[in-house]
Design goal:
Permuted papain-like amidase YaeF/Yiix C92 family enzyme, Papain-like_cys_pep_sf, 29% helix, 19% strand, globular, alpha+beta
């Protein structure tokens, strides 16, 4: 998982698929993007997650491609008000649901529509996972 900047965005990086990353972006919704086209890679932290179910996680993200961005849900997440649209998505909701369901990590049970990128980072760090240099993606 990659987390950007002041913990305002998160993505799932599939190193098994040439480092393609999945997330929800405000202008395009859920899609996959290539790692080499990332802007400001120095703003990201990379956390290696257990990947025994990576193909299932990849397929779930693939099934979400084209889902519109949930701007109202993001506002609800920021103010801890459960306002979201099941037909839309945002980055931390997609990452939380995918990691919760398709890794062996024991993340706390939360309402996915209220999970922020910072909460995702803390959950992963609390599992004992340490960030690795981004250069590992170029190997």
């Amino acid at each position: 998982m990659a987390v950007r900047g002041e913990w305002v965005h998160c993505e799932i990086v599939f190193n098994e698929k040439n480092n393609v990353r999945a997330s929800a972006w405000d202008k395009s919704g859920v899609e996959f993007r290539n790692w080499e086209y990332i802007h400001y890679p120095e703003r990201f932290e990379l956390y290696p997650l257990p990947s025994e179910y990576w193909l299932e996680a990849y397929r779930i993200c693939q099934a979400q491609v084209g889902t519109k961005y949930d701007r109202l849900g993001v506002i609800g997440m920021m103010y801890k008000i459960p306002v979201f649209n099941n037909e839309r998505n945002f980055c931390s909701k997609l990452c939380y649901e995918t990691i919760q369901n398709y890794t062996s990590l024991d993340l706390p049970i939360e309402r996915s529509s209220l999970v922020t990128p910072l909460m995702m980072r803390r959950m992963i760090i609390n599992q004992g996972i340490k960030p690795v240099p981004l250069s590992v993606l170029n190997q």
